Amino acid sequence: MARHSITVNVNGAPRSAEVDSRLLLVHFIRENLVLTGTHIGCDTTHCGACTVLLDGTPVKSCTVLAVQADGRNVTTVEGLEKDGKLDPIQEGFMQEHGLQCGFCTPGMMLTSHALLERNSKPSEGEIRAAISGNLCRCTGYVNIVKAVQYAAAKS
Amino acid sequence: MIPPPFDYHAPKTLPEAIALLGQLGEEAKILSGGQSLLPLLKLRFASPGHLVDIGRIPGLDYVKEEGGFLRIGALVREAELESNPLITSKYRILTDTASVIADPIVRNLATVCGNLAHGDPANDHPATMLALGASVVLTGPSGTREVPVASFFTGIFTTALKPNEVLTEIRIPVPPAGSGGAYIKLERKVGDFATAGVAAFLVLKGGTIERAGIGLTNLGPTPIQASAAEAALVGKTPDEAAFASAGTLASSATSPNPDRRGQTDYKKEMARVLTIRALHKAAQRAGGN
Fold first, then answer.
1. Which residues of A touch B41 (CB under 8 A)?
2. I want to staple B109 with a disulfide (CB 3.0 to 4.6 A). Which of A14, A148, B33, B250 is the partner?
3. DSSP letter (8 states) at residue A147
């Protein structure tokens, strides 16, 4: 089994490692880089708990190989905060109680962050459609939608 | 879940990819969006010795009308069909289809060509491409060959693609004036495979149907072209009576397996009902009633 030297720009800093072909991006993030904000939920491309941004686009990191991210930019939940200041989406989840157990929250925030980057004033329907690949089993989504609306109003 | 061991290759050009595929033979699988392949590996349904990642080959992510065809390159993502203005205005059947595949995050990586190359009868684009009379371009060591989608699917998870070929382009004839298409999928929840899915495409001329295309999803071992239903529609006025008999004919072309999504009879009935609905929607978009 071949090994590959990869360098991935994670949250703005280059991170290099030698990895197996079959190493999944989520394992690279959690185990090699010890960035455990990215969660493993279903591990079958359904739940979206492992969502990260790959060159700014939300992807399920349990269904991407680490080698596929070589030379590209990855943003995890740890990269949302800038200079000690929370991203508006993080503030929104706090202010609007957008989480209960918190397991889906990193993925929810990254997907919503990417939505607001391309559509700064999404309708409720657009928010709900955008997060339809991120499952939450606690909130019923009502406060998550409010959290995204809070961030949209703020940014 | 960790995939079984394999070697990973990332060719920079198409000829390099094809040479590698030729050298590795049946042991290699093409990795593109990976949204079907990687789950299969993780579940150990497949364990190829080599993955040839075509994702780093430049110039394969085009969507354009050229020479009378809409051309969709190998690396065009499903999400593109939901946002590209050419597609959302003129090829609404493609937007219908893309928007019910898995979920938006999966669609950011999943490719349209991969949806065909995978050969899964549960995938949604095959039905749409059958309805539209599309063909696929297969590129191998001695050049390209064009295969109609109608003869591309040879069996369950089996296609006309040879081990040393890459599906590089989908070609859809530019729809004539007075035409319209729609895709309707019945699913248990967002992101599920179809219980049944129907793609319908109609060309209307002078108040009658000049041409009809109907493709069916997950209703047999391969994607199904409902040829008898298509033929029966030609020359008819696009009304309830014509659509009702097409629905019955389309349903009898199916052979669905019973599973968690429903029994055989239920799926056949859904094929009938969805065919009628898809035809109405296609007719509406074609400017009929």
1. 22
2. B33
3. H
Could you give the maximum distance between any two Cα atoms of chain A, in Å?
A: 50
Closest CB from A22, A24, A48 relative to B5: A22
Interface predicted TM-score (ipTM) of this complex, two decimals: 0.97
The C-alpha of A21 sits at a distance from chain B's nearest C-alpha, in angstroms, of 6
Task: State the count of interchain CB pairs (< 8 A) between A and B.
Answer: 81
For residues B75 and B147, state if they share a domain. yes
Residues A66-125: tens digit of each pLDDT:
999 999 999 999 999 999 999 999 999 999 999 999 999 999 999 999 999 999 999 999
**Model pTM score:** 0.96
Of the candidates A4, A59, A129, the beta carbon closest to that of B108 is on: A59
Strand ranges, E, within chain A: 3-10, 13-20, 51-54, 57-60, 73-75
**Residue range A36-82, pLDDT digits in tens:** 999 999 999 999 999 999 999 999 999 999 999 999 999 999 999 99
Query: Does residue B44 form part of some domain?
Result: no
pLDDT tens, residue by residue, B145-164: 999 999 999 999 999 999 99
Strands A3-10 and A73-75: parallel
Among the listed residues B131, B132, B102, B133, the one whose alpha carbon sits nearest the alpha carbon of residue B115: B102
CB nearest to A63's CB, from B7, B10, B39: B39
Regarding whether A8 and A74 lie in a shared domain, the answer is yes
Please tell me if residue A24 touches chain B, with a CB cutoff of 8 Å: yes
Q: From chain A, pick out residues whose CB is under 8 angstroms from the CB of B5.
A: 1, 20-22
Residues A71 and A33 in one domain: yes
User: Same domain, yes or no, for A113 and A68?
Assistant: no
Q: Give the total number of structural domains in chain A.
A: 2
